[in-house]
Amino acid sequence: MSNILVVGSLAYDDVQTPAEHRTNVLGGAASYFAIAARLYAPVRLVGVIGDDFREEDVERLRSRGIDLAGLERRSGGSFRWLGRYDYAMNTAETINTDLGVFADWQPRVPDSFADSEFVFLANIDPEIQLATLRRVRAPKAVALDTMNYWIDHKRDALLEVISHVDIVSVNESEARQLCDTVSVAKAARDILARGPRAVVVKRGEYGSVLFTRSFSFWSPAFPFDEVTDPTGAGDSFAGGFLGHLAATGTVDDRALRRATLHGTVCASFAVERFSVDGIEAATPDDVATRYRLLQDLVKV
Ligand code: AMP
To answer: Is the Cβ atom of 123 under 6 angstroms away from ligand 1?
Structure first.
């Protein structure tokens, strides 16, 4: 089994859905990813938190077996995100982003992480993503996720880091915005032309599509009557996706297809409850059960 290094945001979120409003809940791309990926393989985390970050939240990550040697605490505020969902629940509207201690932070990657085999550059400043990647000697596969905020603020740096990764994961609207096109298929082709070998486009309740140069694979979302909180669906998806690749140690076409279904399953646990509560409660057995149900759904 291979290990996975993740760098990305650790945050406190305020989340408004049509049904409920929660404040100050544990969030951040790296938190969701790590809590999902630890269901599959050992996870190492690189990130920064402020002095307002609760010790019990650090302990939640540590007690899930996540290696926190790359987690730094600095004086200042933690990353904070305020997002709202309307009835469609498919895309978040960002009301406010406060980078806090992430604003001028240079990642410190411990020497013991330099041999990481799989790397996830979770949603954060693309300059931080690139600086982290440079510290890893010979990764087998690197995946990247981003958000409209970074497409707006750091487009050139983002395109630079995209050219160094194997897999890009974006949602539908981000794909369109990044490539300035209304066609998701064309956006995927444009991203592939920049170097990556696979692009995963997430489409909320309509599932996701895996594009490579030779095929595309469409996965439905896990069927649900009600979504509680879509926050972190994309990062948990990435956790299941890269987790499966790391668990098998392979990145061939079949592994990529199966990884897409594992991503879908992890996202389904994340959206069932607020914050990281849903994905945190999931066990490998729960994952296996939903994976079989999803596999039956895509069979013809
Ligand atoms: P997702 O719903 O999977 O796209 O990710 C949601 C998480 O991303 C939330 O928990 C936020 O704290 C975090 N987040 C929101 N905006 C940003 C940003 N601009 N950079 C890094 N992380 C962010």
So the answer is: yes
Distance from the alpha carbon of residue 296 to the mean position of ligand 1, in angstroms: 32
Note the pLDDT of residue 1: 85
- Asked if residue 175 has its Cβ within 6 Å of ligand 1, the reply is no
Other beta carbons within 10 Å of 1: 11
Confidence of residue 273 (pLDDT cuts 50, 70, 90): very high
For ligand 1, whether the C-beta of 126 sits within 6 Å is no
The domain total for the chain is 1
Q: Cα(237) to centroid of ligand 1, in Å?
A: 13
Checking if the pLDDT of 130 tops 80, the result is yes
What are the b/e assignments for 141-176, b being 16+ CB within 10 Å? Answer: bbbbbbbbbbbeebeebbeebbebbbbbbbbbbbbb
Write out the residue range of the structural domain in which residue 187 sits. 4-298
Instruction: Look up the CATH number of the domain holding residue 30.
Output: 3.40.1190.20
**Pairing mode of beta strands 118-121, 93-98:** unpaired
Instruction: Say what the pLDDT of residue 183 is.
Output: 95
Q: Is the pLDDT of residue 168 over 90?
A: yes
* 44-91 tens-digit pLDDT: 999 999 999 999 999 999 999 999 999 999 999 999 999 999 877 778
